[in-house]
Amino acid sequence: GEDVEQSLFLSVREGDSSVINCTYTDSSSTYLYWYKQEPGAGLQLLTYIFSNMDMKQDQRLTVLLNKKDKHLSLRIADTQTGDSAIYFCAESHRNSGNTPLVFGKGTRLSVIA
Amino acid sequence: DAGITQSPRHKVTETGTPVTLRCHQTENHRYMYWYRQDPGHGLRLIHYSYGVKDTDKGEVSDGYSVSRSKTEDFLLTLESATSSQTSVYFCAISEGHNYGYTFGSGTRLTVV
Question: How far apart are alpha carbons A32 and B72 in whole angstroms?
Answer without folding.
Answer: 27
